[in-house]
Every structure is written in C-alpha cells, then in structure tokens.
Amino acid sequence: MSPIVEALLLRSAALFLMLGSLAGLIVGALLLWSPHRLRVTGSFLNRWVSTRHLDQTLDRSVAIDPWFYRHHRTSAWLILLASAYIIYSFTVGLDRASAVIGLSRRFYLPEGLVGGLLDAMVLSALLGTLLAVFVSLFLLLRPSMLRDFEQGANRWISLRRGLKPLEVRREGLDEFVYKYARQAGILVVLGSLYTLALLTFWFSHYR
After folding, report:
1. Residue 80 CB coordination number (10 Å)
2. Domain span including residue 190
3. What is the pLDDT of residues 77-87, one digit of tens each?
4. pTM for the full model?
5. Are residues 30 and 74 in the same domain?
6. For this UniProt entry, which segments traverse the membrane (predicted)?
7. Does 114 reside within a domain?
8. What ranges in 59-206 are assigned the alpha helix state H?
C-alpha cells in the first residue's frame, strides 16, 4: 500500500473516532443532566428492522443440478480444463521461492510463516482440484452414479430457525442504562475524554 494512501486512511480513521468521541461526550452529558431528553430522542430514532425479508430471500432454493445433468459432457470437459489449468499453475507455473519473497516483502511477514501459509493454500487448492477431477470424470462417464450420490448428500438447511433469535427485541440494556443514567454517563464521558486525549496526542506528534 502506498504511504500516502496509508496516511490518509489512518487520518480518516482517527477523525472518525474523534467524531465518535465527541458524540459520546454529548450522550454522556445528556445521561448526566437530562436523561429524559435522551430517552425521547432514542424512542424517535430507534426503529426495528425485521430480517424476515432477508430470510425469505435466503431460503429460496436455486436448482442448477438439472442443467449440469442435461449438459453433463460439456460441464465435465469445462471442469477438467479448469482443473488442469489450476494444477499447472500451482505446480509447474509456481515459483515458490519468488512467491514467498514477494509476499513476505509485501505484507511484512517472516518468510517461514509466508512459506507455511503458501504451502497450505497450494495443498488445499490441489486437493479441491483433484476432487473436481473425480466429479468431472463421473459426469463424463457415469452421471447416474453421481446423481445417486448427490441425492443422498444434498440436504436443504433452512435459516429460519437460526435467524429467529434476531427477531426478538431486547430492550433490557436501554432500561438498565436509563436506570443507572448517572453512572453510565460518567463512564461514557470518561471514555470519550480518554479517546479524545489519546487521538489529539497522536495528531500532534505524528503529522
């Protein structure tokens, strides 16, 4: 990453945190001296967003299996060609030493760590490619056997039960904060002041 871009991103993040700290000071002051105004503002701004529409979209099953079985020879040859290209790229076409040195310099990591991660990635890619080769051979020679395996292994998992807890409103935290508004306000003000002081010190010394 360019040093100029990195400096701009750091300054943008620091300014964002400073604005958040100023907002925290305002919220803390309201909790200390006028919590009822904060409650009114919170009831106006707080809106419940349901995830049911998202659930319905994610729970739609898209079946692409019939297309593969209808054009099984074309699909098999395409998978074989892609697998051959991946195997060539990660074996003959990969210069491991140059890749390790380049990645180590780019991400400022030790060469031993980069080499281990690269080996793990290459091994995972090759194992996945070999699995794709077996699938393509079944599609090419015996698609009926693959269909039987696919029907036994393919199971639809609905997300409705997993996302159902997101549809439950939990207002206990708000009531707890309003119940102990002064203590919460002191903590928020102290945290905001600490963050502002830290960021101001950073800006003054790292221009």
Report:
1. 17
2. 1-46+182-207
3. 999 999 999 99
4. 0.51
5. no
6. 12-33, 76-94, 114-141, 184-204
7. yes
8. 65-70, 72-90, 96-107, 111-141, 143-153, 160-163, 172-179, 181-205
